[in-house]
Amino acid sequence: MLKFLQSGSAFRTNAKRVVQTCRLMVGIHDYDAYLLHMHGHHPEIEPKTRDEFYRYCLEARFPGAGKISKCPC
């Protein structure tokens, strides 16, 4: 494996940050950060699954997007 692709390398760390920033810009929150928050601050509550979390974020950004009668635009 190439050195710059190894876990913990500066390139890989920066690439993860760029991906996270792009996701936040389009309204997709970081699921891993959500899990860390839930386990650290709310251990008594079971966290949402990845699919539930994605749907929650989508609904928060585009209310009614799952309904055919409404356009999210």
Automatic annotation (TrEMBL):
Any one Pfam family match given in the protein's UniProt record, by short name: Sel_put
Domain of life from the UniProt record: Bacteria
InterPro entries, per the entry: Sel_put
Entry protein name: DUF466 domain-containing protein
Species of origin: Iodobacter fluviatilis
